[in-house]
Prior knowledge:
This protein is of the alpha+beta class. The chain has helices at residues 2-33, 41-65, 73-98, 105-134, 139-165, 188-203, 208-230, 237-298, 350-369, 374-392, 480-488, 496-511, and strands spanning 169-171, 177-179, 312-319, 327-333, 338-346, 396-404, 409-415, 421-423, 429-431, 436-437, 451-454, 460-464, 520-527.
Amino acid sequence: MRFMIKSRWELQKLFIFLQLILCPAASIYFLSLRDWDSMPATWIFSIALNLFGMFICIFLFMSVVKDRSDITFRTGYFSYLIGICDFELFLSLVTWLMDDVASFHILNAIANTASAALSTIMLRVAWFYLVEVADLDTPILHKISRFVNVIAAISFTLYIVNYFGHYYFYVDSNGLYHRGPYFITTYVFTAIMFICIIGISIFMDVSSTKKNALISFAAIPIVAVIVQALTFGISLTYPAFLLSLIFIYGNVFAEQNHELTQNRLKAITAENKLLLEQQKHERIKTELNMATEIQTKTLPTIFPPFPDAKGIDLYSVMHPAKEVGGDFYDFFKIDDDQIGLVIADVSGKGVPAALYMMIAKTLIKSAVKQGMSPAETLSYVNEQFYETSEELDMFVTVWLGIFNLKTNLLTASNAGHEYPAIKRAGGSFEIYKDKHSFVVGGLENIHYKEYELSLHPGDTLFVYTDGVPEASDETDTLFGTNRMIEALNHNPELHSKELIAHVLQEIQFFIGTAEQFDDITMMALRIEEK
């Protein structure tokens, strides 16, 4: 749509520009055909004034369209006014050149009729331009505009009919122009227009600049009309109209250009702000991608993790809700006979939780490798975290186990984490309500409980974060522990990787198009024959 408007505006500019060039060129040609010695001085003055006005129209039009990127009704109406004024000046010049030349009496009559009829169109366009300039949109103005259209149509028709009736003016067979008995009534439409324009400037709320433009548009031509009505042999109406256009350009367009400049500055500022926001977003996105990569590399991802450890099938996965998450898992060799197993959930999400997670993971692994039991490890990490956690209002739920590869004995401690699920050989998964202790980083001097589980071939231990049971669909219905157990028991004899993949598939099918609000982390340990 905007392309069509711009294309139309370009065609309009081209058409008016060609007219502005052709009118003075044609005028100069007509000037060469007339004998100047027989012309009165007042006629020569009017011809020179009209020709000078045509050249002024060219410069005024070029000033209006130069470097203007706005395509508005104001600019369009104003350029039409310049074009009409230029053509009126040309017709006025032609009528003076043809006056008192018998061979041109028909052409002279046509030129006078066209000039008079065109004046109604010019005044109508001027009215709508000034309404646009005033930035007014009221019911009374709509009624006045309809009235102006009706009066303009009547006036235009009467001028055309005058060619045959001669009640306004006529050109005799000798080519001499005469005013008719009702010539004075030709100014009725002009007077109505000027009264309406002055009414806008007085009774409507418009700025002083626009008010001056409105008054000048009416006042300057009124003076010219009065002078022209009382004299014969001098043409001032259209030069006066051109003077009004120049005054409007100097005031209204200056104000409009100031507004456009301000709007362009605002647009540039907004564009720069948007660009900075986009750059900031891209930078954050890049940093988050780097954080995701760093976090991913801190989690063990090589499976099977202990090729030389016979009799275990271990697999883990973590799906963060954001680019980086607060969940983590870990498994590592303590010595030739023992491995450490960790799954934890840091309160919160995003980068702060991820940084907190990395610290917790490092402290837990370091403490376990130094020979601490699960309960001792959690107590140690809790003391390290307590002061910082209190300031940041963050804590960690942890399930920590140490599995003996020779005895298949699991020693574990649960710090406010989800209950694990366990399947015995030939059986199905059930929730194992282990001994719970308080979260890590919540209170100081916590004594963490510890328990032991003996695992045998065919047994599978499944641990997870709360992102699994608390996954929700579009209606905020939770996946829940029961659905998790059902997913595990769909085929409880699956290997750890396939088992976790099936649970994850069930979760994703359940939540559908809903957004994932929490990290989803799972770990499965299956005991096999050595």
